[in-house]
Amino acid sequence: MKLFPKSSDLWLKSLILTLYFILLVTFISILSVFVKTRIEMYEAQLSSFRKAHEMTASLSFILEEHINSVYRQMLLENVLNAWLQKKDYTVLDIYDLSQIQKSMINIVNSDPELVSMYLYNKNNGTVLSTNYMFTSIDSFPEKELFNQQQPDDKGHWMNERFENVGGTSHSVITFIAPLNNNTGYVAINVNRAKLFQNIVPGESVALTDNSGSILAYTGATLGKDSPLSPVTLLQLHETDSRPISISEHFALVSSNAHGKWEIISLMPHTQLVQLRLPHALLLLLLLMLIVANVYVICRFFSKNYVKPMKEYKTNLDQNLDDLQHNFILNILTGKIKASDIRYRTKQLGIQLQSQFLVIVFHIDDYYNHLLRLENEDRFNTNKTIYNAIKWYFSTKCSSYTVKAELEKIAILVAVKEDADTRQQLADLDKMIRYIQKEILDTTGLTVCAGISDIADRLENAHMYYSQAFKAINSKLIYGKHSVIYYKDVAVHSAHEYHYPAVDMNKINTSIRGGDLAEVQKLLDEFCDNLIQSGSVSIEMINAMLANTLFSVVKYALELRYSLDDIFHQDIFIPLFSYEVISDKKDYVVGICQTFIQYKKEASRSSNKTLKLVLDYINKNYDKRISLTTVSEEFNINASYVSLLIKNELGLGFVEYVNELRVKKSAAMLCDQRIPIREVSEACGYDTVHSFIRNFKKVHIVTPSEYRNRMNH
After folding, report:
1. How confident is the model at residue 410 (pLDDT cuts 50, 70, 90)?
2. Distance from CA of residue 273 to its chain's centroid?
3. Residue in 699, 687, 683, 695 with CA at minimum distance from that of residue 674
4. CA 661, CA 655: separation in Å to the nearest integer?
5. Which backbone phi and psi does 244 adopt, to 5 degrees?
6. What is the 3-state secondary structure of 17-35?
7. Using CA atoms, how far apart are residues 199 and 450, in angstroms rounded to an integer?
8. In this structure, are residues 530 and 540 in contact, taking their beta carbons and an 8 Å threshold?
9. Backbone phi, psi, residue 353, to 5°
């Protein structure tokens, strides 16, 4: 009887157990590599599909925005609007039509996405296009495009169709919109092939309008059972970065918030690598993973997890402020994916309510202020202002402050849902004005604040950051040291604002008349009218005020004044350095006042100056004398000297000097003992030839002939 097994049995069992473990590990490794490879292939294909969709959607929306900009450009064409108002067509309109067609052809030729454009004049029933002759609507091959318009239509897209351009057939989709209060329409034809040039193999892409109607598609056939049928498309909504599954297809949908297009991309399930594995295999995989990982987890847990986690937490605590700053800045600038925001906010310990708003502080004239400081003072000033804003807001409310730009500081402020919103905004206004006063008292700098609307999704923070920036840009109207709410910023109207030429003429007349009060009144009226019209822009303000300065310069040059003597600077450059309307206007009024005062003083001193100039000429005309010598003698501009003499005597400087010299020479010629050359030199002429020529201009005869006549 064997009480103990043989050593060979123990060895065999050990061998079997070892082989079993080796096979188990090998099987797990092979299965893991297989699953990992399939997952990577699957994710790579989804990523390629998503990138292709995003590229197609981005290009499409950019194209749609471009078409809208072309349409808005045509709304502002004066020649086009004038033609649309004419009910009768005459031969005199040929030039205008050629200019309109030339403009349309330039637009089409400059943009490879555009195929052609049509203009339809309802008043006279004619059509002008880039690829057809000027013709009536009844004879126009594409007249059906204009027969489906509704009275209240503000622009819509037509389904895909074919068009022949230069012998080549193009598949196009057409944007049709009214012009000049529905007196005409424009049709812009877009090349369909340009929309679908970036799709991946097997992908189907459809372009739809807001109603779900398919404008164009590629890679799929529409039908009753097709996943691209209009009924199915209407059930789709805009997706995030992960595609949705519908009718055995993966779908991605993107729409343009300000446009009329939606882009839908579909990829059949069969085109992607399948990840389905037998259930028994999955259970076996799970069991083997548990067995294989128990030992690893127990053995290396403290070494590979506890210690790194402690190091990670230490580093996180030390750099938390910088990490939070960069994360908030990336949210505001839209540089982080929406899907990552919630995870990162929790990871960094950022606590915000579901509602918030964005404040942007803009430090006025900050660059010029820093240039006046030493390097160390610049750093301290920058740090002092930032820390003052950051710590004050952090003690008063839940907020996160970031340095957006050198002169701009942005704050993300939480808004409590269970409190009175109006009261919270009032408290916030007080906080902002307190900070403005503290910075002004401490540094002497004014600060303008822009406040966005209240938002309810952190993913949209970049939109409200943009609102705050737009509010800041309106300080042109509101002035420095102001608090500007985005909701109060006037929305610029779409109508054309005509340049006030009549007002400019009045200002020019007032400058020439020396009426400073009238100049200021006209400038005030212009700025007020521009603001009330909703068309205020920095370009329009600068143009009007620069033209006023140009009127001053032009009048000064007409009077032969030296601009350096009056202003001692380039008067145009400072105008563009001011940031608000009131400063710009005060600067221009100051320039006008300086010029008018200078003109008055110049008028009072001109008579005295003229007497001194004439006395000097009468004493020195028989010497070497010129406008330059006179101007240097009295330290006045040579052109001004010439103007004084011309206005008083009706003669130019050279004519007056020559008159004096000829008069003296005539008296000397009566004495025959004096040679002609000595007479010439005594009267200030450089050469005898010059003397003879100028003498003959006055007396018709030469000096010799004059002498002979006087002695006979």
Report:
1. very high
2. 45
3. 683
4. 10
5. -105, 160
6. HHHHHHHHHHHHHHHHHHH
7. 42
8. yes
9. -70, 170
pLDDT at residue 707 greater than cutoff 80: yes
Q: Answer whether 218's CB lies under 8 Å from 205's CB.
A: yes
Tokens linked to 547 = 């033209």
Confirm whether pTM is higher than 0.85.
no
Tokens of 266: 């579909």
Write the single-letter amino acid at 655.
E
User: Which amino acid does the sequence have at 87?
Assistant: K
Q: Tokens 């992908």 correspond to what residue?
A: 203
String of DSSP letters for 553-613: HHHHHHTT--HHHHHSS-SSHHHHH--SHHHHHHHHHHHHHHHHHHHHHHHHHHHHHHHHH
More confident call, 42 vs 289:
42
Read off φ and ψ for residue 168, nearest 5 degrees.
-115, 135
- β-bridge partners, 250: 245, 267
| Sole residue written with tokens 């372009």 | 207
Query: Which of 182, 219, 176, 205 lies closest to 67, judged by CA?
Result: 176
Start-to-end C-alpha separation, the chain = 182
Q: What distance in Å separates the CA atoms of residue 697 and residue 692, rounded to the nearest whole number?
A: 9
Please, which contacts does 331-340 make with residues 24 or more away whose CB atoms are closer than 8 Å? 331/412, 331/458, 331/461, 331/462, 332/358, 332/402, 332/404, 332/410, 332/412, 332/461, 332/462, 332/465, 333/462, 333/465, 334/462, 337/241, 338/240, 338/459, 339/240, 339/241
The dihedral formed by the CA atoms of 22, 26, 32 and 33, expressed in degrees to the nearest 10: 150
> Up-side HSE of residue 506: CA atoms within 13 Å toward CB?
13
Q: Which residues pair with 409 in a beta bridge?
A: 361, 403
Q: Residue 375: count other Cβ atoms within 10 Å of its Cβ.
A: 8
Backbone angles phi, psi at 455, to 5 degrees: -105, 160
Q: How would you classify the pairing of strands 483-485 and 447-451?
A: parallel
Q: How confident is the model at residue 238 (pLDDT cuts 50, 70, 90)?
A: low
Pairwise CA distance, residues 515 & 525, whole Å: 16
573 in Cβ contact with 534 (< 8 Å): no
Q: What average pLDDT does this structure show over 442-471?
A: 87
Can you tell me which residue has the tokens 């690893």?
296
Exposure on the CB side of residue 116, measured as CA atoms within 13 A: 19
Query: Could you tell me which residues come within 8 angstroms of residue 402 by beta carbon, excluding any fewer than 6 positions away?
Result: 325, 328, 329, 332, 409, 410, 411, 412
Pair 447, 440: CB distance under 8 Å: yes
| 69 three-class SS | helix
Report DSSP state, residue 455.
B
Domains of the chain (ranges plus CATH)? 54-270 (3.30.450.20), 320-488 (3.30.70.270), 605-710 (1.10.10.60)
